[in-house]
Each structure stands twice: as C-alpha cells, then as structure tokens.
Specification:
By secondary structure, the protein is an alpha+beta fold. It contains 4 helices and 8 strands. The chain has helices at 14-17, 69-75, 120-125, 144-150; strands spanning 2-8, 21-32, 38-44, 47-54, 59-66, 83-93, 96-103, 111-116. The chain has an 8-stranded antiparallel β-barrel.
C-alpha cells in the first residue's frame, strides 16, 4: 500500500534543497484505467521498473517489479505519447521524507511535493510546511499519468 499526499509548490526556499539527493526519472505509461489503476515503466538512476498501481486518492495499492534492460527496451516504445521526465529531490522532514519533483520538458515549471506515510492516521494529521502550496492529492489532473498524457492543467 502507498499512503501519500501531494502538494503544488510555487517557490522552494533555497535552504530546503541544501544537500538533498537528486535523481533523474523518466517514466512512461503502458496502460491506465478510469478507476485510477495504471501500469508504468520507470528509469531511476539506472534502475528499471515496471509498476502497477490500483485505486485513486491518498491510499493506493502498488506493486513493483525490476526489469532487465532488454525487457525495459522492449516495452518502452508502447509508452510513446505518455511519458514525462523529472528531477526528484529527497528532503528530510522529521521522521518523514519529502519527494520534491521538478518536472522538465513540456511540464517545465511544475514542481510538486509528495509525502508518503506509514499510516492513514499520520497522513490525515500531517501539517504541511509553509512553503507547500495547494494540496492536489485528489486532483486527477496532477496524477503523473494524466500529466504524461494531457500535459499541464490549465
């Protein structure tokens, strides 16, 4: 299970990025359902993954499988027209971690903060830092799949 909240960010205080780890991510979508289910390919720092997600909103089922280069390369062409690229910064926040995604390409200018939680109770009780903007956890337009398919929302 993945328990996550997502927020738009308009300005990241420079001291927040500090010594953060940053990785480049490219991902493409093989399939998506109206119920929020999706199957994606992702390349992160040389690791290759196929991920299946089920459900929508703050709590979703998630299963990942590592792929070989050959498997990834065989499937990647099927994601044409449903891809995105971003740089992910990992920022500590007490016992939690912020994943700050800075999008590039056609999504340039979009910055999103995601926080994963061990329990639904902690997710609901979370008070975001002042530099977080509007919450978009339940806004389907800001799901990565929709961003890859439709581009930036109006």
């Amino acid at each position: 299970m993945e328990i996550e909240r997502k927020f738009l960010v308009t300005a990241v205080p420079s001291d927040e990025l500090g010594e953060s780890r940053a990785v480049e991510i490219v991902q493409g979508y093989l399939a998506a359902g109206e119920d929020g289910s999706e199957v994606r390919l992702r390349r992160v720092a040389g690791e290759l993954w196929l991920t299946a997600k089920r459900g929508a909103g703050m709590v979703r089922g998630e299963h990942e499988v590592a792929l070989s280069v050959e498997q990834f390369n065989a499937l990647w062409p099927a994601t044409e027209g449903r891809r995105l690229a971003k740089t992910r910064h990992a920022l500590p926040l007490g016992e939690l971690q912020i994943e700050l995604d800075v999008y590039s390409g056609s999504l340039s200018g979009l910055v999103v903060a995601e926080v994963e939680f061990p329990t639904v109770e902690l997710a609901r009780a979370f008070a975001p830092p002042p530099w977080f903007g509007r919450e978009v956890t339940d806004d389907q337009r800001f799901k990565n799949r929709r961003l890859a398919e439709d581009g930036l929302p109006d």
